[in-house]
Design a protein that fits this description.
The chain is an alpha+beta fold. The protein contains 3 helices and 22 strands. The protein has 4 domains: 40-50 and 290-362, conserved putative lor/sdh protein from methanococcus maripaludis s2 fold (Beta Barrel); 56-65 and 207-288, Efflux pump adaptor protein, beta barrel domain (Elongation Factor Tu (Ef-tu), domain 3); 72-93 and 177-206, RNA polymerase II/Efflux pump adaptor protein, barrel-sandwich hybrid domain (OB fold (Dihydrolipoamide Acetyltransferase, E2P)), CATH 2.40.50; 99-174. The radius of gyration is 48 Å and the shape is rod-shaped.
Amino acid sequence: MPLILNRRPIASLVLCLISSLGVGCKSDPPPVAGAPQAMPVQVAPVTLAPVPNDDTYVATIKSRRSSTMQPQVSGNLVKIFVKSGDFVKAGQVLMRVDPLKQVATFQSQSGTEAQKKAVYDYSKIQLDRQQKLFEAGVVSRDAFDQATQAYQNAKGDYEANAALTATQKQQLDYYDIRAPFNGVVGDIPVHVGDYVSPTTVLTTVDENADLEAYIYIPTERASQIRVGLPVEILDTNGKVLAKSTISFLSPQVDNGLQSILAKAEIPRTAELLRNQQLVKARVTWSTAPAPVVPVLAVSLVGGQSFVFVAEPKGDGYTAHQIPVTLGETVGNTYPVLAGLKPGEKVILSGLQFLQEGAPVKPLG
């Protein structure tokens, strides 16, 4: 049976193919993209604020009452009554050098003094007796003069020995090393049994009050340094430990350091500081108004500081990135040395999402 084909669908398909090859398939045009929406951002104006002009130097804290303890006699240490860090009072015994030899010397001298005292007392009695006999005409003038001379000799001999005994007793006191004032005991490099002499350093006693900061100012600042300049004492993290002013300036230049010694008194309330402690001293030369920006507005890229400002454009604002030169932080702000002018609006929020020229909507 012959196969009969339906020619109408085939004709329709052929016409479609011809139409597609000749004209091409038509499609709807893509929708037009709308303008990007402005990102809301917090802004703050660049303002003027007092900014100090200062420099920071290494300084040493020193006590105006600090004593190095050395014995005035030689001998072996037999007792150490304190340890490093102890607080001691004026006159308190710190150490004792073996006093046995001096005790023997003192006792011997005391015995000699007692003998001289007995002779002196006897001579005084004899003088009184001879005086009465002379006045009664019993003895001659020569006998009375001899008694007077014997008394004077005995008196002088006794007084000389009494003075020598007092000296030996005072020498005995030197075998006890005492604190010269209230203070804190420093390092004790000696031990019981060590032989010490007047050149041996036993320890130190420092009064942790009446402290001063020793600051060496470079000579190029000689024309600016003066008494009364503000000084802040800082720790290694920049925390302010004490505030003071320059109270002393050396009239001479230190040849080795080519600097000028300046001193700043430390208030007694600054209990965190210790004698011989190394600190930083920030000297403020002057204070003048300068543009400042919040710390939050600054971003660091490749070692360069940048800020975004909201710049007017048409009916709105766009983000514009500006490189800036900044000074040391003052509170929560940076002084702006170059790059910005007062009144410009710096962006504080969304910095990580901003790009140059992006539309923004200031909120602050």
